Amino acid sequence: MKNNLLSKSFTRYAAIQALYNLNFSNNLNDIKNYLTTNKVFFIDSNLDLNFKKTKMNKVFFCKILDLIDKDKDKIDEFIKLNLSKGWSLERLPKVQLAILRVAIAEMMIYPRTSIAIIISEYIMFTESFFTEKECSFTNAILEKIYKKINA
């Protein structure tokens, strides 16, 4: 069971990396291919996970990225509707936007996954890049969107 949980965490992290890389390359298929065949990942040292012997769940990875590719406008609309007045997607840091998109895609694919699991996973990733302020923002946005998806 522990290996399966690590595999999901690792896969979520890889999906965030893939989405972030789309800022520099417009070819999602190349990025997916690279990340599903590459054996070396650079994991931020702040993450409290040991991914060294963990395998990526390629089906989960591709489901998330395929949904984002197909429904990016819908996912982005969820985010926009929950931003404070005067904020836009363009103002959000690229990594944070990638984290939010992956989390929302997972909620859409697996709406029965507990909000506690979703939030704890994606807050952990947010913490490795940002301060408490951004973590609180990620938490609030994901809670609101989770409620809308599961309404």
Which key phrases capture this entry?
151 residues, mainly alpha, N-utilizing Substance Protein B Homolog, Chain A, 6 helices, 67% helix, globular
Descriptive overview:
- The chain is mainly alpha-helical.
- It has one domain: N-utilizing Substance Protein B Homolog, Chain A, CATH 1.10.940.10.
- 67% of the residues lie in helices and 0% in strands.
- It has helices spanning 2-21, 28-37, 58-81, 94-109, 115-127, 132-149.
- The longest helix has 24 residues, at 58-81.
- It is globular, with a radius of gyration of 15 Å.
Short recap of the structure:
With 151 residues, the chain is mostly helical. It has helices at residues 2-21, 28-37, 58-81, 94-109, 115-127, 132-149. The mean pLDDT is 86.
CATH uppermost class: Mainly Alpha
The separation of the N and C termini measures 30 Å
Q: Give the topology string: H per helix, E per strand.
A: HHHHHH
Query: Major β-sheet, in short?
Result: none
The CATH superfamily turns out to be: NusB-like
Specify the CATH architecture: Orthogonal Bundle
Structural class: mainly alpha
CATH topology: N-utilizing Substance Protein B Homolog, Chain A
**Over all CA atoms, what is the radius of gyration?**
15 Å
Low-confidence parts lasting 5 or more residues at pLDDT below 50?
Answer: none
Proportion of residues in extended strands? under 5%
Counted beta strands? 0
| Mean pLDDT over the full residue set | 86
User: What is the helix fraction of residues, given as a range?
Assistant: 55-70%
Helical stretch count? Answer: 6
Count of the separate structural domains: 1
Overall 3D form: globular
